[in-house]
Design brief:
Number of strands: 11
Strand order of the largest sheet: 1-11-8-7-5-6
Number of domains: 2
Bound molecules: NADP nicotinamide-adenine-dinucleotide phosphate
Radius of gyration: 19 Å
CATH superfamily of the largest domain: NAD(P)-binding Rossmann-like Domain
Order of helices and strands: EHEHEHEHHHEHEHEEEEHEH
Oligomer: single chain
Strand content: 5-15%
Length: 284
Protein backbone atom coordinates (compact mmCIF):
# COMPACT_ATOMS: atom_id res chain seq x y z
CA UNK A 1 0.00 0.00 0.00
CA UNK A 2 1.25 3.50 -0.73
CA UNK A 3 -0.42 6.16 1.35
CA UNK A 4 -2.35 9.18 0.13
CA UNK A 5 -0.08 12.12 0.79
CA UNK A 6 -2.17 14.83 2.45
CA UNK A 7 -1.47 18.14 0.73
CA UNK A 8 -1.43 20.68 3.55
CA UNK A 9 -0.75 23.56 1.18
CA UNK A 10 -3.90 22.81 -0.82
CA UNK A 11 -6.08 22.41 2.30
CA UNK A 12 -4.63 25.61 3.77
CA UNK A 13 -5.29 27.47 0.50
CA UNK A 14 -8.93 26.37 0.66
CA UNK A 15 -9.26 27.58 4.27
CA UNK A 16 -7.69 30.92 3.30
CA UNK A 17 -10.14 31.30 0.39
CA UNK A 18 -13.04 30.63 2.75
CA UNK A 19 -11.67 33.21 5.18
CA UNK A 20 -11.23 35.78 2.37
CA UNK A 21 -14.88 35.31 1.37
CA UNK A 22 -15.97 35.56 5.01
CA UNK A 23 -13.93 38.75 5.50
CA UNK A 24 -15.47 40.35 2.38
CA UNK A 25 -18.93 39.50 3.70
CA UNK A 26 -18.01 40.88 7.14
CA UNK A 27 -16.77 44.17 5.62
CA UNK A 28 -19.93 44.48 3.50
CA UNK A 29 -22.11 44.00 6.58
CA UNK A 30 -20.19 45.98 9.20
CA UNK A 31 -18.24 48.56 7.20
CA UNK A 32 -14.87 47.66 8.74
CA UNK A 33 -12.44 44.75 8.42
CA UNK A 34 -11.43 42.30 11.15
CA UNK A 35 -8.05 43.24 12.64
CA UNK A 36 -5.14 41.23 14.03
CA UNK A 37 -2.68 42.98 16.37
CA UNK A 38 0.73 41.30 16.53
CA UNK A 39 3.07 42.09 19.40
CA UNK A 40 6.72 41.33 18.67
CA UNK A 41 9.03 42.11 21.59
CA UNK A 42 12.68 42.75 20.66
CA UNK A 43 14.42 41.86 17.44
CA UNK A 44 14.72 38.06 17.35
CA UNK A 45 15.13 37.39 13.59
CA UNK A 46 13.17 34.09 13.55
CA UNK A 47 10.22 35.68 15.39
CA UNK A 48 10.34 38.65 12.97
CA UNK A 49 10.06 36.23 10.03
CA UNK A 50 7.04 34.46 11.63
CA UNK A 51 5.28 37.75 12.37
CA UNK A 52 5.94 39.07 8.84
CA UNK A 53 4.43 35.84 7.43
CA UNK A 54 1.31 36.27 9.58
CA UNK A 55 0.92 39.91 8.53
CA UNK A 56 1.33 39.04 4.84
CA UNK A 57 -1.29 36.33 5.19
CA UNK A 58 -3.67 38.84 6.83
CA UNK A 59 -3.24 41.27 3.93
CA UNK A 60 -4.02 38.50 1.41
CA UNK A 61 -7.43 37.80 2.96
CA UNK A 62 -8.34 41.43 3.77
CA UNK A 63 -7.68 41.36 7.53
CA UNK A 64 -6.05 44.56 8.92
CA UNK A 65 -2.70 43.87 10.58
CA UNK A 66 -1.63 46.15 13.45
CA UNK A 67 2.08 45.91 14.11
CA UNK A 68 3.41 46.51 17.65
CA UNK A 69 7.13 46.15 18.33
CA UNK A 70 8.11 47.02 21.91
CA UNK A 71 11.87 47.00 22.54
CA UNK A 72 13.56 43.97 24.10
CA UNK A 73 13.91 46.01 27.32
CA UNK A 74 10.16 46.64 27.72
CA UNK A 75 8.94 46.08 31.29
CA UNK A 76 6.28 43.51 32.15
CA UNK A 77 4.03 46.35 33.33
CA UNK A 78 4.36 48.25 30.03
CA UNK A 79 3.70 45.11 28.00
CA UNK A 80 0.66 44.32 30.17
CA UNK A 81 -0.59 47.88 29.55
CA UNK A 82 -0.20 47.42 25.76
CA UNK A 83 -2.15 44.13 25.89
CA UNK A 84 -4.90 45.83 27.94
CA UNK A 85 -5.07 48.64 25.35
CA UNK A 86 -5.43 46.13 22.51
CA UNK A 87 -8.06 44.18 24.48
CA UNK A 88 -10.11 47.42 24.62
CA UNK A 89 -9.54 48.54 21.02
CA UNK A 90 -12.65 47.84 18.91
CA UNK A 91 -10.58 47.80 15.67
CA UNK A 92 -8.59 44.84 17.02
CA UNK A 93 -10.40 41.49 16.73
CA UNK A 94 -7.44 39.33 17.72
CA UNK A 95 -4.23 39.80 19.71
CA UNK A 96 -1.18 37.64 19.14
CA UNK A 97 1.88 37.94 21.39
CA UNK A 98 4.75 36.29 19.53
CA UNK A 99 6.74 33.86 21.70
CA UNK A 100 9.35 33.46 23.01
CA UNK A 101 9.56 36.65 25.05
CA UNK A 102 12.91 37.88 26.47
CA UNK A 103 13.98 36.11 29.68
CA UNK A 104 12.98 38.93 32.05
CA UNK A 105 9.34 38.63 30.98
CA UNK A 106 6.91 35.90 32.10
CA UNK A 107 5.52 34.66 28.76
CA UNK A 108 2.80 32.49 30.28
CA UNK A 109 1.51 35.23 32.56
CA UNK A 110 1.65 37.97 29.92
CA UNK A 111 0.04 36.00 27.07
CA UNK A 112 -2.60 34.97 29.63
CA UNK A 113 -3.66 38.64 29.79
CA UNK A 114 -5.07 38.53 26.24
CA UNK A 115 -8.88 38.69 26.48
CA UNK A 116 -10.45 35.29 25.73
CA UNK A 117 -12.60 36.89 23.00
CA UNK A 118 -9.40 38.05 21.22
CA UNK A 119 -7.23 34.99 21.97
CA UNK A 120 -6.70 33.94 18.35
CA UNK A 121 -3.82 31.64 19.40
CA UNK A 122 -6.29 29.84 21.67
CA UNK A 123 -3.63 29.29 24.32
CA UNK A 124 -4.70 31.39 27.31
CA UNK A 125 -5.90 29.58 30.47
CA UNK A 126 -9.48 30.71 29.72
CA UNK A 127 -9.40 29.31 26.17
CA UNK A 128 -7.78 26.07 27.40
CA UNK A 129 -10.49 25.78 30.08
CA UNK A 130 -13.31 26.35 27.59
CA UNK A 131 -11.85 23.64 25.35
CA UNK A 132 -11.47 21.21 28.27
CA UNK A 133 -15.09 21.85 29.30
CA UNK A 134 -16.33 21.44 25.73
CA UNK A 135 -17.64 25.01 25.61
CA UNK A 136 -17.42 27.43 22.68
CA UNK A 137 -14.17 29.35 22.39
CA UNK A 138 -11.21 30.01 20.13
CA UNK A 139 -9.20 26.83 19.54
CA UNK A 140 -5.39 26.59 19.19
CA UNK A 141 -4.30 26.92 15.56
CA UNK A 142 -2.06 23.89 14.94
CA UNK A 143 -4.39 21.26 16.48
CA UNK A 144 -7.35 22.85 14.64
CA UNK A 145 -5.32 22.59 11.44
CA UNK A 146 -4.72 18.89 12.09
CA UNK A 147 -8.48 18.31 12.48
CA UNK A 148 -8.95 20.04 9.13
CA UNK A 149 -6.35 17.76 7.51
CA UNK A 150 -8.07 14.69 8.98
CA UNK A 151 -11.39 15.93 7.59
CA UNK A 152 -9.77 16.40 4.16
CA UNK A 153 -9.27 12.61 3.92
CA UNK A 154 -12.64 11.86 5.58
CA UNK A 155 -10.84 10.20 8.51
CA UNK A 156 -13.48 8.49 10.64
CA UNK A 157 -12.82 9.87 14.14
CA UNK A 158 -15.82 8.57 16.07
CA UNK A 159 -14.70 5.55 18.07
CA UNK A 160 -11.27 5.59 16.41
CA UNK A 161 -8.13 4.82 18.43
CA UNK A 162 -6.16 8.07 18.30
CA UNK A 163 -2.64 8.30 19.70
CA UNK A 164 -0.94 11.67 20.18
CA UNK A 165 2.80 11.62 20.90
CA UNK A 166 3.64 14.78 22.86
CA UNK A 167 1.74 16.49 25.70
CA UNK A 168 2.67 20.16 25.31
CA UNK A 169 0.20 22.92 26.16
CA UNK A 170 0.81 24.29 22.67
CA UNK A 171 -0.15 21.15 20.80
CA UNK A 172 -0.47 17.72 22.46
CA UNK A 173 -3.00 18.56 25.18
CA UNK A 174 -5.36 20.64 23.01
CA UNK A 175 -5.08 18.07 20.20
CA UNK A 176 -6.19 15.35 22.62
CA UNK A 177 -9.15 17.50 23.75
CA UNK A 178 -10.23 18.20 20.17
CA UNK A 179 -10.08 14.49 19.29
CA UNK A 180 -12.08 13.63 22.43
CA UNK A 181 -14.70 16.15 21.34
CA UNK A 182 -14.88 14.22 18.05
CA UNK A 183 -15.55 11.02 20.05
CA UNK A 184 -12.18 9.39 19.37
CA UNK A 185 -10.62 7.16 22.03
CA UNK A 186 -7.48 9.14 22.82
CA UNK A 187 -4.12 8.11 24.27
CA UNK A 188 -1.49 10.78 24.94
CA UNK A 189 2.14 9.64 25.04
CA UNK A 190 5.24 11.45 26.29
CA UNK A 191 8.87 10.88 27.24
CA UNK A 192 7.95 8.58 30.15
CA UNK A 193 5.55 6.37 28.18
CA UNK A 194 6.51 2.71 28.44
CA UNK A 195 6.75 0.78 25.17
CA UNK A 196 5.76 3.63 22.88
CA UNK A 197 5.85 1.32 19.86
CA UNK A 198 3.18 -0.98 21.36
CA UNK A 199 0.89 2.01 22.02
CA UNK A 200 1.42 3.57 18.59
CA UNK A 201 0.73 0.38 16.67
CA UNK A 202 -2.85 0.35 18.06
CA UNK A 203 -3.59 3.73 16.51
CA UNK A 204 -6.04 4.30 13.68
CA UNK A 205 -4.93 7.94 13.86
CA UNK A 206 -1.32 8.52 14.87
CA UNK A 207 -0.16 12.09 15.50
CA UNK A 208 3.48 12.83 16.32
CA UNK A 209 4.50 16.16 17.89
CA UNK A 210 7.87 15.63 19.55
CA UNK A 211 10.67 17.23 17.53
CA UNK A 212 12.81 14.08 17.10
CA UNK A 213 13.63 13.45 13.44
CA UNK A 214 12.09 10.25 11.99
CA UNK A 215 11.44 8.63 15.40
CA UNK A 216 8.17 7.05 14.21
CA UNK A 217 9.29 4.07 12.14
CA UNK A 218 7.15 1.79 9.95
CA UNK A 219 6.90 -0.95 12.61
CA UNK A 220 5.09 1.48 14.96
CA UNK A 221 2.34 2.05 12.42
CA UNK A 222 -0.79 -0.08 12.05
CA UNK A 223 -1.37 -0.92 8.37
CA UNK A 224 -4.02 1.49 7.06
CA UNK A 225 -3.52 4.10 9.80
CA UNK A 226 -3.64 7.84 9.16
CA UNK A 227 -0.38 9.46 10.23
CA UNK A 228 -0.02 13.18 10.95
CA UNK A 229 3.49 14.54 11.41
CA UNK A 230 3.58 17.78 13.40
CA UNK A 231 7.28 17.69 14.31
CA UNK A 232 9.73 19.99 12.60
CA UNK A 233 13.49 19.76 12.95
CA UNK A 234 15.86 21.80 10.84
CA UNK A 235 18.75 19.63 9.65
CA UNK A 236 21.47 20.58 7.17
CA UNK A 237 19.55 18.59 4.57
CA UNK A 238 16.38 20.64 5.22
CA UNK A 239 13.24 20.36 7.38
CA UNK A 240 12.50 16.89 8.77
CA UNK A 241 9.47 15.58 10.62
CA UNK A 242 9.05 13.06 13.43
CA UNK A 243 7.94 10.32 11.02
CA UNK A 244 10.13 8.19 8.78
CA UNK A 245 8.05 9.29 5.79
CA UNK A 246 9.42 7.02 3.04
CA UNK A 247 8.98 3.82 5.07
CA UNK A 248 5.72 4.76 6.81
CA UNK A 249 3.96 5.79 3.59
CA UNK A 250 4.19 2.13 2.50
CA UNK A 251 2.04 1.07 5.50
CA UNK A 252 -0.27 4.00 6.18
CA UNK A 253 -3.49 4.89 4.37
CA UNK A 254 -2.70 8.60 4.50
CA UNK A 255 0.24 10.66 5.73
CA UNK A 256 1.31 14.31 5.93
CA UNK A 257 4.70 15.34 4.52
CA UNK A 258 7.18 17.71 6.16
CA UNK A 259 7.30 20.37 4.89
CA UNK A 260 3.93 20.97 3.25
CA UNK A 261 1.67 19.12 5.69
CA UNK A 262 0.68 20.56 9.06
CA UNK A 263 2.86 23.71 8.79
CA UNK A 264 0.71 25.64 6.27
CA UNK A 265 -2.42 24.97 8.35
CA UNK A 266 -1.28 26.94 11.38
CA UNK A 267 -1.45 30.39 9.75
CA UNK A 268 -4.65 29.49 7.87
CA UNK A 269 -6.33 28.64 11.19
CA UNK A 270 -4.99 31.86 12.76
CA UNK A 271 -6.74 33.84 9.99
CA UNK A 272 -9.93 31.86 10.52
CA UNK A 273 -9.78 32.48 14.28
CA UNK A 274 -9.40 36.23 13.65
CA UNK A 275 -12.54 36.21 11.49
CA UNK A 276 -14.42 34.12 14.08
CA UNK A 277 -13.33 36.53 16.83
CA UNK A 278 -14.48 39.55 14.78
CA UNK A 279 -17.85 37.94 14.15
CA UNK A 280 -18.33 37.06 17.82
CA UNK A 281 -17.42 40.62 18.87
CA UNK A 282 -19.86 42.01 16.30
CA UNK A 283 -22.55 39.74 17.75
CA UNK A 284 -22.92 37.45 14.71
P1 LIG B 1 7.52 20.39 23.25
O1 LIG B 1 6.83 21.37 24.11
O2 LIG B 1 9.00 20.29 23.27
O3 LIG B 1 6.88 18.94 23.55
C1 LIG B 1 7.46 17.78 23.06
C2 LIG B 1 6.73 16.59 23.63
O4 LIG B 1 7.36 15.41 23.15
C3 LIG B 1 6.76 16.52 25.16
O5 LIG B 1 5.49 16.19 25.66
C4 LIG B 1 7.77 15.39 25.43
O6 LIG B 1 7.47 14.62 26.59
C5 LIG B 1 7.57 14.52 24.23
N1 LIG B 1 8.75 13.68 23.99
C6 LIG B 1 10.05 14.05 23.98
N2 LIG B 1 10.84 12.98 23.74
C7 LIG B 1 10.01 11.92 23.62
C8 LIG B 1 10.22 10.55 23.38
N3 LIG B 1 11.44 10.05 23.21
N4 LIG B 1 9.14 9.74 23.31
C9 LIG B 1 7.90 10.23 23.46
N5 LIG B 1 7.63 11.52 23.69
C10 LIG B 1 8.69 12.36 23.77
O7 LIG B 1 7.17 20.62 21.72
P2 LIG B 1 5.84 21.20 20.98
O8 LIG B 1 5.83 22.66 21.12
O9 LIG B 1 4.65 20.39 21.34
O10 LIG B 1 6.27 20.84 19.48
C11 LIG B 1 6.54 19.51 19.09
C12 LIG B 1 7.07 19.51 17.67
O11 LIG B 1 6.06 20.04 16.81
C13 LIG B 1 8.30 20.39 17.45
O12 LIG B 1 9.12 19.79 16.46
C14 LIG B 1 7.72 21.69 16.91
O13 LIG B 1 8.65 22.39 16.09
C15 LIG B 1 6.57 21.15 16.10
N6 LIG B 1 5.47 22.11 15.91
C16 LIG B 1 5.07 22.38 14.65
C17 LIG B 1 4.02 23.26 14.43
C18 LIG B 1 3.59 23.55 13.03
O14 LIG B 1 2.97 24.56 12.76
N7 LIG B 1 3.84 22.63 12.10
C19 LIG B 1 3.38 23.88 15.50
C20 LIG B 1 3.77 23.54 16.79
C21 LIG B 1 4.83 22.65 17.00
P3 LIG B 1 7.58 15.24 28.09
O15 LIG B 1 6.35 16.09 28.26
O16 LIG B 1 7.58 14.04 28.96
O17 LIG B 1 8.85 16.04 28.13
Amino acid sequence: MSATVIDGKAVAARVREEVALGVAEFVATHGYAPGLATVLVGDDPASAVYVAGKQRACAEVGINAFDHRPSAAVSGADLAALIAELNDDPAVSGVLVQLPLPDHLDGTALTGLVAAAKDVDGLTPVSAGLLALGRDGLRPCTPSGVLELLASVQAPLEGAEAVVIGRSNLFGKPMAQLLLAENATVTVCHSRTRDLAAVCVRADILIAAVGRPRMVVAEWVKPGAIVIDVGITRLESGLVGDVDFDAVRERAAAITPVPGGVGPMTIACLLRNTLLAARAQAGV
